[in-house]
Task: structure prediction
Amino acid sequence: MAKRNRAGKGTFAQRVGTFFLCALLTLFFIWLLDFLRDDVGNIEGPDRDTFYAELDQAPEELLKDLRRQQAEVTRQVQRKQGSQGDYKASMENARQVMQGMVDLKRLSIEQGVVFPPSDQEALAAATARFIAAQKQFETANGEITALNFQSYDLEDQIREQVVVVTDHRRPADELFEDAEETHELKTGFYKLAIQLPLFLLAAWLVSSRKQSPYRPIYLAALVATFWEVSVIAWEHFDREYFKYIAIITAIVITLGFLRYILANASKPPMELLLRRYRASYERCRCPICDFSLRRGSLREAVWTRKGPLTTAAAAPTDAEERPYTCPSCGTILFDSCNECQKIRHSLLPSCENCGAEHATEGAS
Ligand SMILES: [Zn+2]
Ligand SMILES: [Zn+2]
Result:
């Protein structure tokens, strides 16, 4: 009983407040450690292009040349298509003039008037223009078809050359991937070199300062550093290994909790035990076997699930100053105080009459 916490657990509001502040603190810790992790992670890694630069550049150059040709062909096709639009416009224009002239001519024949020679010439000129534009249009069409064939051919060549270049680059890709893996591992270790000691420090504080009022802060630090270490392991180390690390950590943590719960259940800590005893005395039941506490004025009381139904106003414990042993389990529940010789609660630490402290031991 040397380290009994006189301050107790605090009010409900204080506990809720502590919980939320600790959750907030955990988030801030994680934030801070994230910055740290990012800064370490900014170390520059290997560059793929430098690996390619050491290869023979010929296949790459050929591919570039083919792509250049392809672009040129596309450009020409676009230009021809533009001109075709122009030819089409002149054709349409000439066609309209022709149509007008033909209509005029038909009208003059119907009216028996002579079609003027100047109009005859204009009609001939329009027809010639129409035919010329049509010819140019056709020529452009032919050229576009030829260019398209060339383009398809180039496309095939490019596709083949891409395969050649990919094969050619493969050794460089492999070297680069090796270098990158090494880099990942290296940055992972750098990050761990900062975060792992923090994690271990927090774990040590949590496990060694069990009675410290600042324990929630240590717990926040432990959760934050544990999170960071897990993230680093996930980001930098081979997933194959990580899955084992993750599952083993999960098992260890679960076992830890289970051990704590089982240990509490079989041999509860003094604080928990006292809380249980207090509650039992309050309810007028034996703290050990939960049998009703038939003592003093309660001897004749009617017992319900919630406790005794008393008609007398008298408190159950000060009615009769006599030691009391539970008739069910034989535990001494009320006994005389060593100091003042009055009757006290045997399972609680202090005498209610003189305040003398008595050693309290476990249930057995
Ligand atoms: Zn009992
Ligand atoms: Zn006493």
Q: What stands out?
A: The first helix runs from residue 12 to 41. The chain has two domains: 12-266, 268-301+319-364. Helices lie at 12-41, 48-53, 58-110, 117-208, 215-236, 239-266, 270-282.
